């Protein structure tokens, strides 16, 4: 239990929490306990008094306490709900901000779709921590207040009622252990199901195209059945709680009415106090039920909290270093190796990427072209060797400053939901005038189509740019890179998968973008390398050749084959 509490508290370290509201909720819960006990006491007095005549003052006082209890309940419900949502928001923001600063290698092992659950349902579960703690405190405090009054009603009966506490302790421990195991399993199955659905809902067209409805239905059936089984096992744990509470309820009735009837006959307790005693016992039992449930929720969420805690414990990408306020220089790869876990991708890369020039990278699929880009962006660090900017190791520069010197135009999903304007200005920190926006749009060959789109620059972009053609998406991405005005440009097969007309538009926009910049491009066809000052040929993660297009046509067999294939396609 102590370990679980430590797991929770790690999450809230450094987080701004609504402490005043939390204190107010605790105070209201304490007042509510006293009001409920006092109302029961007045009820007992009224019942005893009705044997003679109704005491108007006590009746009015009872009504006042009931009204106060109602107001406190409303206030408690509203404020505790407000606290819960504020804490959920704080946890969700903390987890998301952490995810944005994690090393890229973290996402190689975790399913991105499952990570969504960490920010949504799991963050809500972690946010329940304070609500559960308050419920536990309220239950214990109300139980203490109730038992104080029970002992003032009838000492012997109150002493006998303490027999329910060992039963309650046994039920609570057993229930919390069961919910910890079954709750963790249910959450794991839910995350797997959500990950499957998130991926396959987006790929329904692919499923239909390949007539895989039956196979995917069987996969879903397998996943859903596992989730159903986990949820059923979790629901079984509530039977433990209900069964235990039934036993406690029976003990309460036995103590209150069997023992109480004898004392009533002996004149040791009044009818009103007997009814009040039973009501207070029921109140204490209800609080115990709440405490038992809270322990279960606490234990069930502990596994979830451990997953979030692991994310928050991972070290950020380093942000120390100097600014990129230096003159442009060559980028030099010095005996660079890189491996994804145990799989070696790049081996002993030695080359120079000259400043102000165009360097094209060609090679077979899986040769490491995109991985090299990730190293240049510092999404990963080399496993061995170093990358230099002039005579300085690139790790000496502040990471954010280094990345701001680059702009990348990728081949897949270059746009985000929002407006065209927001996509073009994404990551731009300076103030942009309308004239500059129009100029960039014209340079990127999107001005005409933007002006013909309803809403123009404020037109909405669908998820992934789904409401625009591939060429339009790429040209908007090029406009975004132009607006950033980078010193270094990375083009990751930016003209692949486009029709001839779109490729011409994108190529023209890219020529405008590359002018005067150090450009590194991954080329998928020969035409993209013709105007390069340098071509690097990668094969199985190693540099096979470096030279101008003309030199490689004479000396490198792969490049000759690459050029021949591109020429035949062009014909």
Can I get a quick summary?
The chain is of the alpha/beta class and 571 residues long. It has helices spanning 2-11, 19-49, 56-100, 112-119, 121-153, 155-161, 164-202, 204-209, 213-265, 271-313, 369-376, 399-404, 420-424, 434-443, 447-451, 470-484, 500-514, 549-555, 557-570, and strands spanning 331-340, 343-353, 358-363, 384-389, 392-393, 406-409, 418-419, 460-461, 488-492, 518-522, 534-539, 542-547.
Structure description:
The protein is α/β, with parallel strands linked by helices. It has two domains: 2-313, ABC transporter type 1, transmembrane domain (ABC transporter transmembrane region fold), CATH 1.20.1560.10; 331-570, Rossmann fold (3-Layer(aba) Sandwich), CATH 3.40.50.300. 63% of the residues lie in helices and 11% in strands. It is built from 19 helices and twelve strands. The chain has helices at residues 2-11, 19-49, 56-100, 112-119, 121-153, 155-161, 164-202, 204-209, 213-265, 271-313, 369-376, 399-404, 420-424, 434-443, 447-451, 470-484, 500-514, 549-555, 557-570; strands at residues 331-340, 343-353, 358-363, 384-389, 392-393, 406-409, 418-419, 460-461, 488-492, 518-522, 534-539, 542-547. The strands form three sheets. Strands 6-9-10-3-11-12 form a six-stranded mixed β-sheet, with helices on both faces. It has a four-stranded antiparallel β-sheet with strand order 2-1-4-5, covered by helices on one side. Strands 7-8 form a two-stranded antiparallel sheet. Helix 3 (56-100) runs antiparallel to helix 5, helix 5 (121-153) runs antiparallel to helix 6 (155-161) and helix 7 packs across helix 10 (271-313). The model has no long low-confidence stretch (mean pLDDT 78).
